[in-house]
Amino acid sequence: MKVKIKRWHAVAQWRWDTGATEQDDADGEEGDVCGICRVPYEGCCPSCKMPGDDCPLIWGECSHVFHMHCLLKWIGTAASKQQCPMDRRAWVTAERKVGAVNPT
Amino acid sequence: MVSEGLRLQVASKWQESFRHLNRREPGISGLVTFSQAWNIAAEFLRPKDIDVPNDRIYNEHIKAAFDTVNRAKRLPVLLETFIEDMRKKFSLVQHDVNQFMAEYEASQNPQIVTKMLYRVYTYKQVWSPPEELGSGLLSAYTRSFRNNFFLTLPTSFSGAFRALCASTLPSSDALPEELNAEPNLWYIFNILGLTERFEGLIANVGYDYIHEYILETCTEQWAEPMLEGVKEKMSKQIIPWLLSIYGRGDLHSEEAHAMLQSVAPKFEYHINKTLCTLRTREIFDIIIDFPDSMGALHDLKECLQRVDQRENLVDALRKSNHKRLLHPGADTKLILSQYVATIKCLRIIDPPGVLLFKVADPIRRYLRERPDTIRSIVANLVGDDDSGDSLVNENEPIHPLQQTEVEDYTDQQWEPDPIDAGPEFRTNKPSDVVSTLVSIYDSKDLFVKELQVLLAQRLLAINDDDTEKIDGERRNVEILKIRFGEAALQVCEVMLRDMSDSKRIDTHVQSQLPLVVHPTVISRHFWPALEPSDLVMPGQFLELHNQYALEFTKFKPDKKLRWFPHLGTVSLEIELEDRTVEAEVPPLEAAIIELFSQQNEWSIDGLVDATRVPDKTAILKALLTWVNLGVLREESETTFSLLEVAGDVPVGSREPIHRPTAAEPELPHVVSIQQQQAEQMRMYWKFIEGMLTNLGALSLDRIQMMLKFAPGYDRSIEQLATFLEAARREGLVVVRDGIWKLNR
């Protein structure tokens, strides 16, 4: 017998590839939240209405991840002193190392 | 002894009387003529048996006698004597009456009563003193005759008289002219004083006639207004009848018309009342028939303005609602549509809405308790109604939801509430149906959540290239936005965008690497929680998953895909040795058939391990789908094998259960609102448990207060009480005097 798939309507969910390993992700079903607005990464920052590409994430050299809009707003304030809000190190936006976290 | 004075007094009286009667005639000749005249007159008047021939003639001779009596001012005494004589003679009448009544009772024929009345009338005519004696005498006679006559009547007479009156009524198809057939009869009634004495009874005959007529013509005739027709009919039949009664047979006398002025409104009132009572009794079915029962509704409205039966209407409707609608046997959809019809109907009958308010309250309370009310309403809103019978009129303009307004104190057009409005009555402005339905619940959030669940199910069920359906959903959401507000439906907006994004991404992925899989990629947090599944797709399916995920990540470098393997549908073509079977099945079915392509025989336990779906019923169901398609065969209770060649079904094997060829397209498993709430409550249970452990026993109020500190806690105290009650039934907590503590 041969099973031939003619068409498959599947359902999937997208996730930000935050660099967390697949294992962590599966366990922490709730997912991580943005350290500034406390909204999950896959949600959107308070000023946005649409998640995903319209409200992307930003990665720091310090390994912290935020909603881009949240971080830019933070950096825009004088109090921020251009530091990462989590560890007070100077904020440097990291290059995405796409291949590195994608073993397949 | 008699004193001198008294004697003198008697003597002078005697003298005076004598003089009086003697009229200054010589000797006692005056007295003699008087006594002769008296005898003549008394004899003339004395009632006699009318069957004995009697030629009583009022001639000069008798007239002279009466003159004599009159001159002596003895006429009143004569009258008294006459009346007394008549009373003695009335046994004749009594005898006749009894005879006739006995005959009537045997035959029940009203004609006998007519005969009797004619007979009595003859008595009265024969016995009557001549008119020349003055109207005073005549009327005294008439009065006395009537009184005596009434005394002779047995109790059964009123029934007989009623039957007689009824027989004079025009039957519904008789022409009005025929009414005049027996004007004499009415004349006799009048002479005998029956019209006055039995006025109520005659009226009742009329009322009964109206009653029967209305019941006969109007029962279950709701399409057209009947009131006008009935009134017209009545004015053609009852009015002439009344005229013949009061007009003493003369249809055009002034007096009759004057009489009618006072009687006709009573009859009109009775028409209204009867019709009103009838319609009140039928109201539930009238509402069911709406809008084909407009006529009845308008009638009812008009009747209610004249007759004060609003309370009855409310009572009747509440009772029938309770009996026929608000019970577990009724479908929620049915209740809703009846409720909507009730709203529409009662708005016609009573525009201010007082009746509606009173009737709607129990329905709303009942609906609030039904678990699937919201679902039904929402399903209806988005047109997901199998019956196709939408609650909402599509031609109606769409309004934003109306909140119950606080009274506007500056309103110049303000009018007080109607008098029978209760203190809780709120004039809800003639708002649209959806607002009314949504206002069954305190907040519209529940609706929005349910909408979301429903939309999710529908969107996930859409097959990828069916853009028309997605457009349909988008239109729905746009309409709902107007009702519920933009912000509330933001989530739905994201869901719709996910649909179009998925399509766009898929087009791109297909252009890079053509694959048969076309996923819908959804945004977490914006869709209702989807039931997780442990299903692992085997073989080529897993391959496809991985290939697609890779392409996706190439296209969107910072995103990755997480599959919901158990959702969606697969179109398969199964190539067997002698045939090919095409089927559209859920993923679990596909996974199982894929496993059979690796190995010809599987046990259910083996499949549970291979698919990692612990639910044996689900597996069995999937297997049966293939059995029904003739691809698999049930070897034993727990093992199934592949049928490479059709028809080699072993003898004695079970008849396959016939089912439609395609596996039933199930709606995707979206966690329902109730499940979500139960899930949340489980979290709060942790809090409650902690609280009761640390603080010992607590009252319900106290627990509620403490829980309010928990983030996102939005339950009412009633909901909490229900929850605790459930916990108590499970033996987790105990309650005494309203104090809850852990059961240890």
TrEMBL record, chain A:
<dbReference type="InterPro" id="IPR013083">
    <property type="entry name" value="Znf_RING/FYVE/PHD"/>
</dbReference>
<dbReference type="InterPro" id="IPR001841">
    <property type="entry name" value="Znf_RING"/>
</dbReference>
<keyword id="KW-0498">Mitosis</keyword>
<keyword id="KW-0863">Zinc-finger</keyword>
<keyword id="KW-0862">Zinc</keyword>
<dbReference type="Pfam" id="PF12861">
    <property type="entry name" value="zf-ANAPC11"/>
</dbReference>
<dbReference type="InterPro" id="IPR024991">
    <property type="entry name" value="RING-H2_APC11"/>
</dbReference>
<keyword id="KW-0479">Metal-binding</keyword>
<dbReference type="InterPro" id="IPR051031">
    <property type="entry name" value="RING-box_E3_Ubiquitin_Ligase"/>
</dbReference>
<keyword id="KW-0131">Cell cycle</keyword>
<protein>
    <recommendedName>
        <fullName>Anaphase-promoting complex subunit 11</fullName>
    </recommendedName>
</protein>
<keyword id="KW-0833">Ubl conjugation pathway</keyword>
<keyword id="KW-0132">Cell division</keyword>
<feature type="domain" description="RING-type">
    <location>
        <begin position="45"/>
        <end position="88"/>
    </location>
</feature>
UniProtKB/TrEMBL annotation, chain B:
<dbReference type="Pfam" id="PF08672">
    <property type="entry name" value="ANAPC2"/>
</dbReference>
<feature type="domain" description="Cullin family profile">
    <location>
        <begin position="406"/>
        <end position="616"/>
    </location>
</feature>
<dbReference type="Pfam" id="PF25773">
    <property type="entry name" value="TPR_ANAPC2"/>
</dbReference>
<dbReference type="InterPro" id="IPR059120">
    <property type="entry name" value="Cullin-like_AB"/>
</dbReference>
<keyword id="KW-0833">Ubl conjugation pathway</keyword>
<keyword id="KW-0498">Mitosis</keyword>
<comment type="similarity">
    <text>Belongs to the cullin family.</text>
</comment>
<dbReference type="InterPro" id="IPR016158">
    <property type="entry name" value="Cullin_homology"/>
</dbReference>
<keyword id="KW-0132">Cell division</keyword>
<dbReference type="Pfam" id="PF26557">
    <property type="entry name" value="Cullin_AB"/>
</dbReference>
<dbReference type="InterPro" id="IPR036317">
    <property type="entry name" value="Cullin_homology_sf"/>
</dbReference>
<dbReference type="InterPro" id="IPR036388">
    <property type="entry name" value="WH-like_DNA-bd_sf"/>
</dbReference>
<dbReference type="InterPro" id="IPR044554">
    <property type="entry name" value="ANAPC2"/>
</dbReference>
<dbReference type="InterPro" id="IPR014786">
    <property type="entry name" value="ANAPC2_C"/>
</dbReference>
<keyword id="KW-0131">Cell cycle</keyword>
<protein>
    <recommendedName>
        <fullName>Anaphase-promoting complex subunit 2</fullName>
    </recommendedName>
</protein>
<dbReference type="InterPro" id="IPR036390">
    <property type="entry name" value="WH_DNA-bd_sf"/>
</dbReference>
<dbReference type="InterPro" id="IPR057975">
    <property type="entry name" value="TPR_ANAPC2"/>
</dbReference>
